[in-house]
Backbone:
């Protein structure tokens, strides 16, 4: 159950089913979908002469070439395709859509194909963004697809896009799952019902659920608002939190003294062995790993200098493309890790993270409050990091008598923090406060969980910066190990009340099982790491988990998305 391979299969079909030299036309959304799983070099090797956007009307006519179009079935892309067919620039057209077509769409294509250039129309279900083998998202950005209408309700456009994308994931993986959802989430239930209706309506595509061992678990971000607010210390998570990753691309143009060729870099596991091996390393181990990587490159570089015979030359020429690729990866990762180190120091993130972890994991109100007051008063700490820590305090101590949330908000204002940033504290409480959550993520809502939390704090931890475990990871571990007590049955009911959810396993062993977890409100890189480690842990039991969300959040995008929504 590999998300990247599923999209690569469709990509290869698109560019190899049509022989000879060709042009590949993409739209605004399929361009990043393809670029995440393929490279220009790979496309060239399959005789793709040119890649362009279908919306670009300034393309030259080349009637001797075939054209392969891969677009989403949206009004904008259909209009661009209609314009293209009315005045074709290429000899033959092979049209592939990333999702299901309506009959009216096919009829529209036929009506506009007056020159009879369309040779083929197919549906290939690559309508989602495959980031890593176990991580995907729908690309719902607040500027283009706002998630919320008002409060905890779907924006209709975002709901439609999510149903389309999630159905494409299931079709690409060839699964028709049993659906479970978080009971307290109207958005999760609505998504489940819309998807279930679609699977019933398109039963010829999805098949039946008989003998099915796949589960789709739909979660809501509001039940764990803590994980996206924390500073995470693994490589992939740090890159997204501190620099930002957009569809596999990292913009480094703002980095001091950056070389022109390094202003934008790509991250892809199948193109970058170092990233694949180091993606989940913490920041301390990362320094050791990159040093070994540089040493390996230097030893290979020195061996290439020793060219004393024809055979040496031949060996060098054969190894040169791989050597150049290695050189580029070394330069890229040294630059990235250097920039991470600079930002950690500049933003005093070690001090910030230590307080974040204490607020997320330990119940010590007096100590946390004193540390938070000192942090807010420190002019070297960025305003957004001060606000994040106050949000964490507000979430943890919301129901603690005598909490100092109002005092801390005033303290933020008196230390120059913008009023709009301060207002996110109240927004976050309305979005994911104790009234909205169904899980005791802080283990402080009753006497029993408080006692458990105290003993957890006494046990100590190997690293004060990595104490927190995402709620999603705990849930998956319980489900996979068969710890499906009444708690989980109540929290994650089956969408069909008459259907009995399949048992994943028991304490003595796990069954074959595929689980798709989808988070309404976005996922994080920390949760991706939890899923990847769970897959590795249970690989011999054939337990496979993939994780998706409406978007991939860091703390900045998470707070930004909520700040534009009214939660009553």
Residues:
């Amino acid at each position: 159950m590999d998300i990247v391979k599923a999209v690569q299969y469709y990509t290869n079909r698109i560019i190899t089913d049509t022989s000879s030299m060709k042009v590949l036309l993409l739209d605004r959304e399929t361009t990043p979908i393809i670029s995440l799983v393929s490279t220009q070099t790979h496309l060239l090797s399959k005789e793709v002469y040119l890649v362009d956007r279908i919306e670009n009307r300034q393309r030259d006519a080349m009637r001797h070439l075939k054209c392969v179009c891969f677009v989403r079935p949206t009004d904008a892309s259909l209009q661009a395709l209609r314009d293209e067919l009315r005045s074709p620039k290429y000899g033959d057209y092979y049209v592939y859509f990333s999702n299901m077509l309506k009959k009216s769409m096919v009829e529209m294509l036929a009506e506009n194909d007056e020159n009879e250039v369309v040779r083929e129309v197919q549906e290939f279900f690559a309508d989602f963004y495959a980031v890593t083998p176990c991580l995907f998202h729908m690309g719902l950005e607040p500027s283009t697809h706002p998630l919320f209408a008002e409060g905890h309700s779907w924006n209709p456009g975002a709901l439609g896009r999510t149903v389309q994308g999630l159905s494409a994931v299931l079709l690409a993986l060839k699964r028709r799952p049993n659906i479970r959802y978080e009971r307290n989430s109207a958005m999760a239930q609505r998504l489940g019902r819309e998807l279930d209706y679609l699977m019933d309506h398109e039963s010829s595509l999805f098949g039946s659920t008989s003998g099915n061992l796949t589960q789709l678990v739909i979660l809501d971000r509001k039940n764990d608002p803590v994980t996206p607010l924390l500073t995470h210390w693994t490589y992939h998570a740090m890159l997204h939190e501190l620099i930002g990753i957009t569809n596999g691309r990292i913009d480094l143009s703002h980095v001091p003294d950056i070389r022109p060729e390094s202003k934008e870099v790509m991250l892809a596991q199948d193109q970058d062995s170092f990233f694949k091996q180091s993606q989940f390393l913490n920041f301390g181990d990362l320094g050791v790993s990159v040093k070994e990587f540089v040493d390996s490159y230097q030893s290979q570089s020195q061996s290439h200098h020793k060219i004393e015979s024809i055979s040496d030359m031949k060996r060098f020429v054969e190894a040169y493309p791989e050597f150049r690729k290695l050189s580029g990866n070394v330069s890229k990762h040294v630059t990235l890790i250097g920039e991470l180190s600079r930002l950690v120091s500049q933003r005093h993130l070690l001090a910030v993270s230590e307080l974040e972890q204490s607020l997320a994991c330990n119940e010590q109100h007096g100590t946390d409050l004193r540390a938070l007051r000192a942090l807010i008063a420190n002019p070297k700490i960025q305003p957004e990091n001060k606000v994040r820590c106050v949000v964490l305090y507000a979430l943890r101590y919301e129901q603690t008598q005598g909490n100092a949330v109002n005092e801390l908000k005033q303290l933020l204002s008196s230390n120059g923090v913008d009023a709009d940033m301060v207002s996110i504290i109240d927004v976050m409480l309305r979005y994911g406060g104790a009234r909205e959550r169904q899980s005791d993520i802080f283990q402080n809502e009753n006497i029993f969980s408080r006692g458990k939390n105290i003993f957890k704090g006494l046990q100590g931890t190997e690293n004060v910066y990595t104490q927190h475990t995402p709620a999603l990871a705990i849930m998956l571990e319980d489900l996979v190990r068969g710890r499906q007590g009444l708690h989980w049955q109540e929290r994650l009911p089956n969408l069909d009340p008459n259907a009995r959810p399949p048992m994943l396993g028991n304490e003595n062993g796990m069954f074959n099982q595929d689980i798709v977890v989808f988070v309404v409100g976005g996922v994080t890189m920390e949760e991706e790491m939890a899923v990847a480690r769970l897959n590795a842990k249970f690989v011999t039991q054939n337990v496979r988990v993939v994780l998706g969300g409406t978007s991939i959040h860091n703390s900045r995008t998470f707070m930004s998305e909520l700040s534009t929504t009214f939660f009553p």
